[in-house]
Write a structure and sequence with these properties.
three-stranded antiparallel β-sheet; 42% helix; alpha/beta; single chain; five-stranded parallel β-sheet; Rossmann fold
């Protein structure tokens, strides 16, 4: 069974992450979730544990979860960061890994594990030239970035179905 690591960041779109996890499990994937501290202010880790069937990583420990999942010969077939905030996108583009999600991204990128990012933020943040440059930098380095839906002055996360369909196509 292929394993997907679902990274969840502190966008209000995090409320969609349990649905993404459930749909991926229904499609036969193993799913392990990792959350940033900001994401825990929006949804509780217990809902992701229910959705994935696995304990949720909310902090890195001596178990070196990032290496087990996304290190060289790691268990993950894909790191899916959904939703991804401007903050997390920019940190990843600059090699900063100060949250569980960004540390798994740094490890996955360094190990050659595919990474897909699903942005969700206010439109003004998405249009910020520095954020745009960071998204471009990620794409130039082989990271897949799903385009958001632009509605109501927001760059909204791609739909659950679009995210799942993309994973099925790319894995």
């Amino acid at each position: 069974m292929k394993k997907i690591v679902l990274g969840v960041c502190g966008s209000v779109a995090a409320i969609e992450s349990p649905k993404v996890a459930r749909e991926l499990v229904k499609k036969g994937f193993g799913v392990e979730c990792v959350m940033s501290k900001a994401a825990k202010k929006i949804i509780h880790p217990d809902i992701l544990e229910w959705a994935s069937g696995n304990r949720v990583i909310t902090r890195l420990t001596g178990e070196v979860e990032h290496v087990r999942l996304c290190g060289v010969d790691g268990e993950a077939s894909l790191l899916l960061i959904c939703p991804a905030t401007a903050n997390t996108i920019s940190k990843i583009a600059c090699g900063i890994d100060d949250t569980p999600v960004t540390t798994l991204a740094t490890t996955a990128i360094g190990s050659g594990i595919p990474v897909t990012i699903v942005p969700a933020m206010h439109l003004s943040m998405y249009k910020n030239p520095f954020v745009s440059a960071n998204i471009k930098r990620l794409k130039e380095n082989g990271i897949r970035v799903m385009e958001p839906r632009i509605e109501e002055n927001k760059a909204k996360m791609a739909s659950v179905d679009e995210v799942v369909d993309a994973v099925l196509k790319w894995i």
